[in-house]
Amino acid sequence: MHGVRLELLELQADAIGLPIEKVFVSQRSSNEEYQEKMSACLLAHKAQGVTACVFGDIFLEDLKLWREQNLALVGMSGIFPIWKIDSRELIREFIDLGFGSVICCVNDAYLDENAVGRDIDREFIDSLPANVDPCGENGEFHSFAFAGPVFKKPVPFKLGEKVYRPLEVTHPGDSSSSDSGTSSVCPSDVRPTKGFWFCDLLPLEAEAKPGD
Length: 212
Fold this sequence. Notes:
This protein is of the alpha+beta class. It has a domain at 6-19 and 86-203. Helix content is 28%, strand content 19%. The protein contains six helices and six strands. Strands 4-3-6-5 form a four-stranded antiparallel sheet. A two-stranded parallel ribbon has the order 1-2. Mean pLDDT is 89; it is low at 174-187 and 206-212.
């Protein structure tokens, strides 16, 4: 759903200094395929002594339950360190700590193409409609973090073109849910989702410093 290039994910992991393990699903994947491949991945880690997975969910009860049920199938548990913390408090702390993050995808039921490509800062948060969670917890928007206290160095990138993809393209075979288990059905007080705007983020070679 983020539409972020694989190279940028690898650069992000390298900049943070953590290993990254990629689980690939087919282009027209189903929830069943996703769950099967994730279960195999988790069981491999369980064999190495891993007992739990950490998630950044904030308040979506159905998503938390979905994660816990799937983890239970492989004998693992979930850890939710920011569960039920106020979204505005979280985003203020995120910005105050100096994290840099760019909007890479928006749900057109909430936001339009003018939002993609923008940095998450106070100006952006203050511009959000009242029905949009400031952390995008309902799937209103997705972002790519490129800098902050946990980064050894910022991830260099530039903004590419903006692309619109209809719902049936981003959620093939199921117009009500994504392959990550999150809902695409909007609350009754907003218009239904017809598609998503993406901003292509392009890897950018870091400029060489004098002496390099």
